[in-house]
Amino acid sequence: MPRVGLTTDRVVAAAADLADASGFEAVTVSALARHFGVKDASLYTHVRGLRDLRVRVALLAGGELIEEIADAVAGRAGKEALAAFAGAYRAYATRHPGRYAATQMRIDQSLVADSPALRRTAEITHGMLRAYGLTEPDLTDAVRLLRSTFHGYCALEATGGFGAPRDVQASWDKVVDALHVALENWPRA
Questions:
Q1: Is the pLDDT of residue 121 over 80?
Q2: How far apart are CA 180 and CA 168, in angstroms?
Q3: DSSP 8-75
Q4: pLDDT over threshold 90, residue 113
Q5: What is the pLDDT of residues 36-65, one digit of tens each?
Q6: DSSP character for 129?
Q7: 8 A C-beta contact, residue 56 and residue 74
Q8: Residue 28: count of CB within 10 angstroms of its CB
Q9: In angstroms, rounded to a whole number, what is the distance separating the alpha carbons of residues 89 and 69?
Q10: Largest CA distance in the chain
Q11: pLDDT at residue 99 in the model
């Protein structure tokens, strides 16, 4: 029988908060059980185990991230949409480091197909890129370029990897400018 007041949503939200406070790797069933003052076994009514818990955090975070991106790009196109997309992505990664780390985990493709948030991610991203006249397979390649660039920048920034005296925001703006130029001049077969 589930403990009164404990729900799957509440457990996952607490796990996401723990990820932001202590790092995604700190998210364990035992850590959450301590947080709620229950035995580990009490949480198995709500999650099937550690992998299930972490996947649920990843799905929650992916949904939050795409909502922020969707709000940022609404009504924009081209470079303006790209800059808004990039800014929302970076802001989320900075504000929610543990949740953001969760979004990088590999998730079974059947779960991705069943997730409205992850389907929306593809819709928003592809919609933004279509303004550059991209279609498949170029769309997939461009998504990979953006994701690897944004993730690499955010990961380096989070660990203090930019030691040069140049303002990090100024560099970010140049990265977005360079991506815009690359997308406008995409090499087509």
A1: yes
A2: 18
A3: HHHHHHHHHHHHHHH-GGG--HHHHHHHHTS-HHHHTTT-SSHHHHHHHHHHHHHHHHHHHHHHHHTT
A4: no
A5: 999 999 999 999 999 999 999 999 999 999
A6: H
A7: no
A8: 15
A9: 7
A10: 60
A11: 98
* Backbone φ, ψ for residue 76 (5° rounding): -115, 160
* pTM across the whole model: 0.93
Quick one: how far is CA 51 from the chain centroid? 18
Instruction: Tell me if the bond preceding 97 is cis, omega within 30° of 0.
Output: no
Q: In whole angstroms, what is the distance from residue 126 CA to residue 66 CA?
A: 13
* Distance in angstroms (rounded) separating the CA atoms of residues 5 and 10: 8
59 with 108: CB under 8 angstroms?
no
The count of residues in the chain is 189
| Segment 8-38, tens digit of pLDDT | 999 999 999 999 999 999 999 999 999 999 9
Cβ burial of 117 (10 Å; 0-12, 13-18, 19+) is: middle
Nearest residue to 92 (alpha-carbon basis) of 111, 123, 66: 66
